[in-house]
Amino acid sequence: MDPIKTQVVVLGAGPGGYAAAFYAADLGKEVILIEREARLGGVCLNRGCIPSKALLHATKMISSAESSADRGITFGKPTVALDKLRAWKDSILAKLGQGISGLAQKRNVRVIHGRAYFESSSSVRVETEEGQTFVNFEQAILAVGSKPALPRTFDLGNPLIMTSTEALELPDVPGTLLVVGGGYIGMELGTVYSSLGSRVTVVEAMDAILAGADADLVRPVARYAAKHFKEVRLKTKVASMATAGKQIKVVTECDGATKEELYDRVLVSVGRVPNADDLGLENTKVERDDRNFVKVNASMQTADPGIYAIGDIAGGLMLAHKASREARIAVEAIAGEAPGAQPLVIPAVVFTHPEIAWVGLTEAEAKAQGRAVQVAKFPWAALGRALTCDATEGVTKIIADPQTERILGVGITGNNAGEMIGEATALIELGATVKDLAMTVHPHPTLSESLMEAAEAFFGHSTHVHTRKSH
User: Catalytic positions, please?
Assistant: First the structure.
């Protein structure tokens, strides 16, 4: 069979890959999108962002029902039909996957399902169910993502030891669940299983959960975990795991002391690793770093001029929206357009109870850099809308340059924090000052008012809290 020829080939149909394929097609390029799985959407849609948020939403109903007793509304004890919950979650994934496939067809993006392997810097071999297909290309965009890390000491071949992939399938609700790693994946899925009835223990090797977020933003989540999880152990490492009948025997270490316990299931959430192997990259000029991520420049171009890499495979923040933005940078470079402003302003959201969202410079980063900043906070306990929805544990903070008053970072903890961080991202991207935000009228009563109030607090005249300007 003669090779198929195309201008752009995209490997991987996740939020970076399909965004790149669609944008390239919109710019008039001939595009082939290669995906090894039957459904488009990648990890985010099938085994990550979307199913986890669906389950977090569903299980939040349980905790909301329990807390409603304080408002004089009492419900009976909930019953959970796992099969139905799983089917509902899967139906969302199917709808979104169908939508992406439909958009590919409308854009005349040819989709080939199979495993791609670089034969050279201008050709890939695709192993499909029908056999081998060869694609010759002018440019390639590598968007093959990452997978959960599973250290060898934990990989016993026992299905009771799960990564996020298996945990999102909801195999059952274990009586006891050990979560190894207190990052966003561990805390989010720990919240899901705790709400369903599991007694959840989190062990984290660092001295705090959710590294990367400022400590004051994490505190409300830590309080929630202390109340709803069986235990959260910091500065604790897992020494070993072993199968013990229908359970997993786990030995942990903390301050030189060891503890041996049995768990019904274990969730290992200690990070993700790039899918950089078995791609034939050695047949190209593409270079990788010591962590196996593909090296790229500001235009997402690799050491091989015709090959670009975006998303998780290119390292940095492993976030779907970062991959989507990098898709545009790569495609614009291929189309000969000048690269956009660098570095990117990328917001982060942790969908715990309550949510945490932040963007730009954090207070901890400013301290580590020795950079002078002014921080203004507004507590949600003083926010009318927060009281009406029992969200008073929240806080909104602004980190600004004390000289120019330009907004450098924003952090929010509270209900729907993820929905509000977009405004803060736009402000930073546009180079706005705290005054710009303070003068922007926000609707009342809403949670978004906390941004305006925090900006007013910066100047010492927030309406609903008494503060004094520090300079």
Answer: 444
